[in-house]
C-alpha cells in the first residue's frame, strides 16, 4: 500500500530551494571567489583557462598518477592540490550543475594534516596520499545529506562514512566534492527536482549521462581527476563516455558497497557495483588496486577475498608484443549506433589490425533484446513501489526518465513479482549467462559501443542495451575516450530502415549538428572477474595505437 | 494456487513399489550375487567381512588417495575396483537402505575402457583415473531418474549429466551408485515415500542423517570411498557426522551446481552447495582440487574463477610447526550438545593445547538463535508452495520432518513473502554476517559440534543450528570423525535445566544406551572462501594428534 502524498509540511519546491542554498553556501566558502560568468558557451571547456591560475590549471589537468607521485614526495602539497580542485569544482558547478555540495573546510583541514604528516614522517600516509576524490551523493558521508535524488529523503543524514570512503581516507584521499544524481538513480542522465539537470561540459544542450552524471561532468571538466560512481545498468559508463573520461564497472562483489543509500536495498538479482571515473586509465587502476589491497572483505563479508592481480593476464611473445584476441561488436542487433560511434570503432579496429599479436574477430550479438527483457524484469521486482513511494511522498513530479523506466516499462509488473516469478527470471538470467559464456572461446575482450550514440539531448537517453548487457552478465566493462563528433564527417546514414521502435527512436534522434563537440567513447568488456585483464588490454592498446585520438584538455 | 492432489493414474504406493523394483533389479545385476542376510544386527559394520572377499575388503577399505595411486600405475585395475565397490554398495543397500539404483553395466564398461586406456597410453586419463564415485540421486544423470525424493517427480529423467559429473568423468571417475535423499531434501535425515528410511550403519535404530543420508550411510559402510552430496543447512555434514566420515560444505560458488533437480531453483538468498563425503580427508581434497582445477566457471558463469590454493595458508615457524589459532565453540547458547559431543571436544581440545604453535581460545556464540530465524525465514520464501505442490500432486503423505520444517515452522509465511520482505531479510542476513565477521580477529578456524548430539533416533533430527549457522554465513565447514558414543562414560547430565523448548527436546532425547556405537564427529569452520585453510588445519591436526581416536573400519 503506498502512502498518500504528503499534504502538510514544506512544499517540494521549498525543499529543493533549501538544498540548492546549502550547495551554494558551500561553494561560497571556496577562496578566492570565482568571477561571475555570464555568457555561457555551448562548449564550456575553454572557460577554466580564463578563470583559474596557471598552477591550478596545471594541477587539475594532471594525470592522477602524476599527482600521486608529486604528492608522495612533497613536490606539491596536498593543500595546493585540494585548493586547485575545489576552485575548479566550484567553476564546474557554475558551468554544468554537477555538485550537491563542496567540502572546502574539511578538505583543506585534511590536506594540511597530510602535509604535516609527510613532513613529520618523511613518507606518505598511504597510496592515495593527498589525492582529492569526488563522491556521488548517495555514497554516505558522516553527518551529511543522503537524499539519493529524492526530495522526500532530503532529511536523511549519513550516520557514518560508507565503507569505501573509510578505505580511501585510510589510503590518504581527500574528500572535497559531492556530486549530482538523478531521481531514482535509474536514468542514464542526471536530472532531479532537488538540483535540476546536469549538463554536458562539451555541449550544454546534451546530457552528461547518468546516473553518476555529476561525476561524469565534474571529471570531464577536470574539476576532479578521480571520482566514485555506481552502476547497475550503465551509471558509471554512460557519464564517463558522454564526458570523455575513463570509467570502470568492475565485476560484482570486489568493491565495498556498505553505506550507500538507494531504493531496492537487499535486492540481489542484479547486483549494483561501485567504481571509478577518472581522467586517466592509471587513475582507474590505482583506485581498484588500493581498494582491493585493503582487503575490504574482512569488514564486508559479501565481498570476495581475492587480490588485485598484478602479473600479466595476457600471453607475451618473444618479440615483446602481447597476444590479444579482440571480438568487435559493431551493433547489438537491436539499436544501431549513430555514425560517430561506428566511425570511432572503425578507426580503432583499423589500427588494431596492424598490431602484431592482436587478432580482431567479429563478435555476433546474441539475443541482446532478450537480455534487456530479463534485466528490466528484475530491476523493479517490487513493481517500482519503493521508487513511487519515495517520489510521491513529497509531491515532487516524476521526471520524464523516471516515468520511462518504471511507469512506461512493460517489463515492470504492477504490484510486483511473486517470489516464484523472481526465481523464474533468475533461472532465465543464469541460462542466458551460460549461453553467452559459450560464445567466448579464446577471445580475450570484446570491443563495443557504450551506447547507441554520443551523449543525447536531455531526456532522450532511452536505450540502455549497450551497458545493461554487461550488468546482466556481470562482466567488467571499461569505457575510454576515443574521438569527438564531427558533423562534417558523421553524416546521417541515408536510407537506413529501422528494425524496431527503439531503433527508429534512436535513428530519428541523430541530427549531426546537435551533437557537435560531443565526446565519443568505446567500451572494452571482459569475462567475469577478468577486470585486471580488461585494464591491461587497454593500457597496451593506448600505448600502441595512441588513444585517445582527440584530447579534451 | 496449488493443484488438487491427483485423483487418477497410479497410486503413490504403486509408484514407490516400481521405484524399488527398479532399484532391486539393478542390484541383482551385480555379480557374483550376495548371500541373503537374514539376521541384521544393530551395528552392521561387521557384516562386510563375512560376505566380501579379502581383495574386495582391502580395496573398499583403502583410502581413495591410495586407490588413485594404485589405479594410476595399474597396480590394481579399474575393473577390480569398480567390481569391489559395486558389491559392497549392494551389500550396504541390504543393510541400511541407502541406494536408489546401482549402475553395474555402465560402471564396468567404463572401468574396462579406463584399463585399456592406461594400457595403451601408459598414463592415467586424469587425476581421478578409475575411482568409483557415488552420487546423490537429485544430481542429474543422463537418461536416469531425477525424482529428488518426490513421488510426483518419479517420471522426471535427466536430459544430460550434471556439470559436476561431466568434470569428474573427464577426470577419470567411474559412476556406479546413486543414493537416497529425503522428501523435500530438507531433512537432516533421509526418509522418503519412494524408498523408505536410510539407517545408520553403526546403529540401525538411528538415522544416517541427511539430506545426503544415502551417501553418508554408503560411505560410512565403505560401499563408497568418495561421494557427492549437497548442503543448504547441513545436508552434507549431518550424514558425514552421523556415519563417521569426512564431509565438506565448501563456500558457495566454487563447485558446479548446474543440472541438479530440486524445488526452489532460482532461489539465491541461501545458496545451496555441492560437496564431497569421503572416508579420508585426502578424498575431500582431491575432489575439491580436481573440480576447481577444471575451471568450471567457464561453463557455469555463477562460479568464481579462482584456483584451489596449494601454498600453505598458515604461518609456519622455524621449528617447522604451524601457527594456528583455534576458537572453540562448545555450545551455541541455544541447544546444549549431548555429553558424547562435549567429551569429543574436550579430548581434542586437551590435545590441541599441548601442541606448540597452536593457540586455543573460547569462541562465544553470537545470536545463533537469530541466525536461525533469518535462515529459516529465507529457506521457504514462497511459503513452501513448491514443496507442498510436489508432495500433494501424488497424494503421498507428508513425512514427519517435512511437516516439521515447513508446516510447523513459524518462520515460513503462509502464501510466501513479498519481494520487499525477501529484501528485508536479505539486509538482515548481511548485517548479521558483518557482525559475525567482526568477531574473528586473528582466529584461523572455529572448532565446534556438528549437531546437538550423535545421530538421533529416526524422525528426531529437529535442530539444525550447528550446521545451518555456517550456511547462513557461507563459511566453509568440514566434518571429521573423532570418537564413538560410550554409554558407560557419556552419562546424562543430571540436574541440567533446559533453556528453552528446543533445548528441552534435545535434552530429553538423550538416553545413552539408545546411542550405543554411534560415531561422534566435530566440525572445523573457516572464514568465507578459506576452504583451503580449513582443510590444511585438519591435515595438520590429524597428523599431530592422531585423529580419529576410534576407527570405524
Automatic annotation (TrEMBL), chains A, B:
One of its GO terms (molecular function) is amidase activity. Pfam families: Amidase. Residues 81-534 form the Amidase domain. Its EC number is 3.5.1.4. Substrate binds at residues 185, 211, 232-235. Keywords: Hydrolase. It is an enzyme of class 3 (hydrolase). InterPro entries: Amidase_CS (IPR020556), Amidase_dom (IPR023631), AS_sf (IPR036928). The active site is at residues 136, 211, 235. SUPFAM superfamilies: Amidase signature (AS) enzymes. Belongs to the amidase family. This is amidase. It comes from Amniculicola lignicola CBS 123094. The lineage of its organism: Eukaryota, Fungi, Dikarya, Ascomycota, Pezizomycotina.
Amino acid at each position: 500500500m503506498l502512502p498518500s502524498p504528503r499534504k502538510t509540511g514544506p512544499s517540494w519546491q521549498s525543499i529543493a530551494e533549501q538544498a540548492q542554498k546549502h550547495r551554494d553556501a558551500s561553494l561560497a566558502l571556496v577562496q578566492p571567489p570565482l568571477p561571475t560568468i555570464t555568457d555561457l558557451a555551448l562548449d564550456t571547456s575553454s572557460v577554466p583557462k580564463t578563470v583559474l591560475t596557471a598552477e591550478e590549471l596545471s594541477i587539475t589537468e594532471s594525470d592522477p598518477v602524476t599527482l600521486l607521485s608529486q604528492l608522495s614526495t612533497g613536490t606539491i602539497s596536498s593543500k595546493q592540490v585540494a585548493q586547485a580542485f575545489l576552485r575548479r569544482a566550484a567553476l564546474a558547478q557554475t558551468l554544468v550543475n554537477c555538485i550537491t555540495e563542496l567540502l572546502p573546510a574539511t578538505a583543506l583541514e585534511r590536506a594540511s594534516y597530510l602535509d604535516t604528516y609527510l613532513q613529520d614522517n618523511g613518507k606518505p600516509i598511504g597510496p592515495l596520499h593527498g589525492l582529492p576524490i569526488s563522491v556521488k551523493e548517495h555514497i554516505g558521508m558522516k553527518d551529511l545529506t543522503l537524499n539519493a535524488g529524492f526530495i522526500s529523503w532530503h532529511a536523511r543524514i549519513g550516520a557514518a562514512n560508507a565503507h569505501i570512503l573509510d578505505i580511501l581516507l585510510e589510503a590518504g584521499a581527500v574528500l572535497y566534492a559531492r556530486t549530482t544524481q538523478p531521481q531514482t538513480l535509474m536514468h542514464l542522465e542526471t536530472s532531479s527536482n532537488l538540483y535540476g539537470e546536469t549538463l554536458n561540459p562539451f555541449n550544454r544542450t546534451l546530457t552528461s549521462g547518468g546516473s553518476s552524471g555529476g561525476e561524469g561532468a565534474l571529471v570531464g571538466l577536470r574539476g576532479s581527476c578521480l571520482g566514485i560512481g555506481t552502476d547497475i545498468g550503465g551509471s558509471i559508463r554512460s557519464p564517463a563516455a558522454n564526458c570523455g573520461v575513463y570509467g570502470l564497472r568492475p565485476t560484482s562483489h570486489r568493491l565495498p558497497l556498505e553505506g550507500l543509500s538507494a531504493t531496492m536495498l537487499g535486492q540481489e538479482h542484479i547486483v549494483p557495483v561501485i567504481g571509478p571515473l577518472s581522467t586517466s586509465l592509471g587513475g582507474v587502476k590505482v583506485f581498484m588496486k588500493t581498494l582491493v589491497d585493503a582487503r575490504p572483505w574482512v569488514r564486508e563479508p559479501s565481498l570476495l577475498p581475492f587480490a588485485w592481480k598484478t602479473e600479466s593476464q595476457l600471453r607475451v611473445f618473444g618479440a615483446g608484443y602481447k597476444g590479444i584476441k579482440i571480438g568487435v561488436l559493431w551493433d547489438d542487433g537491436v539499436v544501431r549506433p549513430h555514425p560517430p560511434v561506428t566511425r570511432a570503432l572503425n578507426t580503432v579496429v583499423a589500427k588494431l589490425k596492424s598490431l602484431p599479436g592482436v587478432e580482431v574477430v567479429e563478435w555476433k550479438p546474441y539475443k541482446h533484446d532478450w537480455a534487456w527483457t530479463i534485466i528490466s524484469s528484475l530491476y523493479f521486482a517490487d513493481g517500482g513501489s519503493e521508487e513511487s513511494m519515495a517520489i510521491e511522498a513529497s509531491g515532487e513530479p516524476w521526471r520524464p526518465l523516471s516515468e520511462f523506466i518504471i511507469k512506461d516499462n512493460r517489463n515492470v509488473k504492477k504490484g510486483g513479482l511473486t517470489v516464484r516469478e523472481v526465481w523464474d527470471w533468475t533461472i532465465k538470467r543464469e541460462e542466458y549467462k551460460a549461453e553467452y559464456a559459450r560464445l567466448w572461446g579464446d577471445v580475450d575482450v570484446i570491443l563495443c559501443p557504450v551506447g547507441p550514440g554520443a551523449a543525447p539531448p536531455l531526456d532522450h537517453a532511452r536505450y540502455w542495451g549497450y551497458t545493461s548487457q554487461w550488468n546482466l552478465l556481470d562482466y567488467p566493462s571499461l569505457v575510454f575516450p576515443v574521438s569527438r563528433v564531427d558533423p562534417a564527417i558523421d553524416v546521417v546514414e541515408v536510407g537506413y530502415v529501422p528494425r524496431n521502435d527503439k531503433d527508429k527512436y534512436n535513428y530519428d534522434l541523430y541530427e549531426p549538428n546537435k551533437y557537435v563537440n560531443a565526446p565519443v567513447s568505446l567500451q572494452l568488456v571482459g569475462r567475469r572477474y577478468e577486470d585486471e585483464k580488461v585494464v591491461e588490454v587497454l593500457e597496451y592498446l593506448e600505448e600502441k595505437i595512441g588513444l585517445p585520438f582527440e584530447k579534451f584538455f
